[in-house]
Amino acid sequence: MQSKKSAVMMLLIAASVGLAAPVVTAQTKRVEGDAAAGRTLALSACTGCHIVASDQPFNPEWTGPPRPPDFKTIANRPDVTATSLQHHLETLPTVPRRPGMANPDLSDEQLRDVAAFILTLRDASPSR
């Protein structure tokens, strides 16, 4: 048992410094989030800097420079996946360098929900 624990610790250390891809097992696999809950959360927490939805009640206060990308632009980046969105949000620094986004300190469920919502904004395309 100790060797398994040591192997897991070494993998976690390697992953944290970018030497290994995250391991996805049946126990660690991320599940899909609730896009409607993610939209509600994003509209209340992210609209100060981002255009979350075309029908959001007001424009962002922060307009840059640089201007934070709107959620639709983020969704349509070719390398964006639910996992990459969740990883990006959960690894942001608590105190960012200027300009930069601070860690929103979301729960795992909230991360899944926001990622699910963002991906609903992706343009339909035959190549996807």
Shape: globular
- Compute the average pLDDT: 81
Order of helices and strands: HHHHH
Q: Could you give a short account of the major beta sheet? A: none
User: CATH superfamily of the largest domain, please?
Assistant: Cytochrome c-like domain
- Helix share of residues? 40-55%
**Can you tell me the CATH architecture of the largest domain?**
Orthogonal Bundle
What does this structure look like?
Helix 2 crosses helix 5. The protein has two domains: 1-30, no CATH class; 33-120, Cytochrome c-like domain (Cytochrome Bc1 Complex, Chain D, domain 2, Orthogonal Bundle). The longest helix has 15 residues, at 2-16. It is built from five helices and no strands. The chain has 128 residues and is mainly alpha-helical.
